[in-house]
Design the sequence.
């Protein structure tokens, strides 16, 4: 145990020393929080129940609506888009100052996002094909593939907004918020077509993205704007849920007539503003915490593989669920219907097992993400041998 602690202390010290002095560590901490929030949220509110020899997707929120406040904690995508807008606006401004073209900048940004996606798509194409050939029910395969692919929608939206950074970086968040409100009035108040709601997929997430861009320009240098935003977001969300007819859950619930997330509604946008304001308000204590090498090393390591963790967390949960069928088709918290406190208690015990499975996925596929961050080595010359890229986290951190 002492050796493990000593090695961890040495690694943390190395990561801390390798981090550029000007790096804003709170940005990385907020990104790590957002990714881990999504992962834990999916593990807690998604269930695969054994049915007629196959697996069907359900949710404890469907059977126990009083659990809706759990979604307020783990629906952290707004914070991710806040950080994304901040980093994109700041990065594009820096690239222009260095004379880097828009094409080179956006190519590098999007390459970091989509390189790890290829491994997921290839693996699941093979798995899904193999299951169908092996006689698995189509509905079971469809449920599993949907769980894997459905989180990818946000990457497409994030990529689109990142590519549009030069156009939207100085846009006030009030404009996309007004679009979200107008679309909801049309959908729910004037009985408009359902398809119009998909406009909010872009407009809804543009709200925190442009808020992040405003942060990069110094709009939240003082606490007062964030405090006002927090108050307005909380009041608006409460009013919309209590009197506007919006659901309390901030994630989709199977069978519900309205989802706050798919597509985003005005309630989700208001909630996201409150969540982003809270994130902006905790920057100072977060910055103090990140000065400790051990705390910063954990955040840095999550950020090194943030997309890998996000892309494979559903696969990890499904792998454990499928392997559990070899033992029993009625394991509590894994295959049973999520309709009681007993299921919740059992599911909490399964979380470390999901994490262990995710660690295996991380070890197998992290190179697809981290290699995209490494600087390309120069061509070899007869006189100088170019060393291979390092896999030492302490050296990788400067490229996150």
Sequence:
């Amino acid at each position: 145990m002492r050796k493990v602690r000593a090695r961890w202390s040495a690694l943390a010290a190395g990561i801390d020393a390798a981090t550029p002095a000007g790096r804003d560590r709170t940005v990385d901490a907020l990104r790590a929080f957002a990714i881990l929030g999504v992962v834990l949220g999916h593990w807690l509110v998604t269930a695969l129940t054994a049915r007629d020899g196959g697996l069907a997707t359900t949710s404890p929120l469907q059977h126990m609506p009083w659990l809706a406040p759990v979604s307020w904690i783990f629906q952290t995508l707004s914070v991710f888009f806040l950080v994304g807008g901040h980093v994109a606006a700041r990065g594009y401004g820096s690239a222009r100052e260095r004379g880097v073209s828009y094409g080179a900048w956006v190519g590098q940004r999007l390459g970091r996002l989509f390189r790890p996606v290829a491994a997921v798509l290839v693996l699941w194409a093979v798995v899904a094909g193999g299951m169908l050939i092996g006689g698995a029910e189509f509905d079971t395969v469809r449920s599993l593939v949907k769980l894997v692919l459905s989180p990818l929608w946000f990457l497409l939206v994030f990529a689109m907004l990142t590519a549009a950074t030069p156009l939207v970086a100085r846009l006030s968040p009030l404009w996309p918020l007004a679009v979200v409100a107008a679309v909801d009035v049309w959908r729910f108040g004037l009985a408009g077509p359902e398809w119009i709601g998909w406009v909010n997929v872009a407009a809804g997430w543009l709200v925190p993205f442009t808020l992040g861009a405003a942060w990069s320009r110094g709009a939240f240098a003082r606490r007062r704007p964030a405090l006002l935003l927090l108050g307005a977001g909380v009041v608006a969300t409460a009013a919309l849920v209590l009197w506007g007819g919006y659901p309390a859950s901030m994630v989709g619930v199977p069978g519900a007539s309205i989802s706050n997330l798919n597509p985003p509604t005005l309630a989700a946008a208001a909630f996201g503003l409150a969540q982003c304001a809270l994130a902006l308000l905790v920057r100072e204590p977060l910055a103090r915490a990140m000065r400790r090498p051990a705390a910063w090393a954990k955040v840095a390591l999550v950020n090194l593989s943030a997309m890998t963790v996000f892309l494979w967390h559903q696969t990890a949960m499904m792998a454990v669920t499928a392997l559990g069928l070899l033992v029993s088709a009625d394991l509590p918290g894994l295959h049973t219907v999520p309709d009681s406190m007993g299921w919740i208690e059992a599911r909490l015990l399964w979380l470390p097992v999901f994490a262990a499975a995710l660690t295996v996925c991380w070890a197998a596929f992290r190179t697809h993400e981290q290699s995209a961050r490494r600087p390309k080595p120069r061509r070899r010359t007869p006189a100088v041998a170019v060393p291979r890229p390092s896999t030492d986290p302490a050296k990788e951190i400067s490229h996150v």
The two ends are 30 Å apart (CA to CA). Residues 31-370 form one domain.
